Amino acid sequence: MGIKFKNVSYTYQANTPFEKKALNDITIEVTPGTFTAIIGHTGSGKSTLIQHLNALLLPQEGNIEIDDFNIDNRKTLRLKQLRKKVGVVFQFPEQQLFEETVLKDIMFGPINFGLSKKDAMEVAEETASLIGLDKDILNKSPFELSGGQMRKVAIAGILASKPSILVLDEPTAGLDPRGKKQLMELIRKLNKEDGITIILVTHNMEDALKYADKFIVMHEGKVLFNGGYEIFISEHELLSKTNLSIPFPLSFLNRFEAKFNVEVNKNVRSLEDAIEKITPHLRVGEL
Fold it and tell me: What pTM did the predictor assign?
């Protein structure tokens, strides 16, 4: 069944001078097992939308269906079960960390969902290793760690509860290039090999292009685009309208075509793919 938003609207500080319509009649669907990128500038509604996925916010209008859960403006939810199914990692990891040690923080979710301390410790240690956390930091306070390490702890804490839907808000912020690549490859592995539905909130167009197979573009509380890769890569006008940059591999190919008056296949995910596409045109004498 997946995730369905039906005519969802949400307004902050309604009926005050500070009223802000964050979501405006949103209707979207996320199919189970997909990797969806939600793209948009600050203030477009991305973070408000994902807070509805585990009922941190309730829709003021419309409703949301997530498998057999129905989320509307009535507080009749099975919150514990919903939040086991939908794991959300927010942009600022320190907001999610609170225990004395890294290990206890990762164990919290599994214990809360019914595992014994012994089993929770095993799961936490396995998840920490999976996410790339060194064993020697497990007994440290999470607040002694770097921003990148704190982000990994927050993600490990969510993964330890075995969600079927993983929502990540700018997960690579604060990571160096190597750490960023390792984390994104892990997220792709969770999607492709473990079947976890991934929802990635990002302003990084290159990450969106490389990893996602579905794209949602938001602007001023509305969804302007909701579709697949093949259509997304042709929507240059839409991206310009929302002041989003065209992913570099595509802009590189556009400039190559314009300069040499050739047509290039733009079915690419990365700069390496783009270079491969132009290589046949670089034969001596062709350009």
Answer: 0.91
